[in-house]
Design a protein that fits this description.
- The chain is of the alpha+beta class.
- Among the domains are: 62-170, Jelly Rolls; 177-206, no CATH class.
- It has helices at residues 2-19, 174-179, 185-192, 196-206; strands at residues 68-73, 87-93, 98-103, 109-115, 117-123, 129-135, 139-142, 148-152, 158-164, 172-173.
- The longest helix has 18 residues, at 2-19.
Length: 210
């Protein structure tokens, strides 16, 4: 008597749990993004194109101050990622190009070099430094929230593809956070130990004021 009852309970639990599971939740980009992601697009309006992103095949424009380009494939560009916990992107680094120290508050990152070579590294919360020059085919992981960088180590344009453990990993570039805003120079000097003249010079380059 006990076995049939247990089987019946498990059957009900199993069937009800699967009934509430959605296969996917393609982002409806017309509404706001919340901490849980975007609202789901009506299934009748979902097409195969929601699950395909073709933007990583072309090189990004590296004619800028950092001689680098990042092409994101986050949920805003790739609605099918919504709720799936992953995303990607492409890095193009011209000779001398750099992705400055930055963090992704919402995700860990894996980088795969496909052309040239890139010196990449991160700093742990204990201020230990881990860096290496990566060649074609090499992978490196950057733990969530830690400061990290990538810099070209070749005389040609280097290319890498990056993958994140979130559909929207977030980004804060340290240089711009310090010198690309309106925080008054005396306050920046007081927190960085840099002299005001250097800070004003960096603000002028990175678009900051104050």
């Amino acid at each position: 008597m006990m076995l049939p009852t247990l089987f019946l309970i498990l059957s009900v639990l199993f069937s009800s749990s699967h009934a509430s599971v959605q296969d996917f939740c393609v982002a409806s980009l017309n509404g706001p993004e919340t901490p849980a992601g975007f609202a789901c697009k009506t299934p009748a309006k979902v097409t195969v194109n929601d699950f395909v992103f073709s933007g990583l095949g072309a090189a990004g424009n590296t004619s800028n101050i950092i001689k680098a380009a990042v092409t994101p494939a986050f949920v805003s560009q790739f609605p099918g990622l919504n709720g799936l916990g992953l995303s990607g992107g492409r890095l193009d680094l011209a000779p001398g190009g750099v992705i400055p120290f930055h963090t992704h508050p919402g995700a860990s990152e894996i980088l795969l070099v496909t052309q040239g070579s890139i010196t990449a590294g991160f700093i742990s919360s204990a201020n230990d430094v881990y860096y290496k020059t990566l060649k074609k085919g090499d992978l490196m992981v950057f733990p969530q929230g830690l400061l990290h960088f990538q810099i070209s180590a070749a005389g040609i344009t280097s290319v890498a593809f990056v993958f994140f453990s979130s559909p929207n990993p977030g980004l804060q570039i340290t240089d711009f956070a310090l010198f690309g805003n309106s925080l008054p120079t005396p306050l920046v000097a007081g927190t960085t130990f840099l002299d005001p003249a250097t800070i004003k010079k960096l603000k002028a380059v990175l678009g900051g004021t104050g």
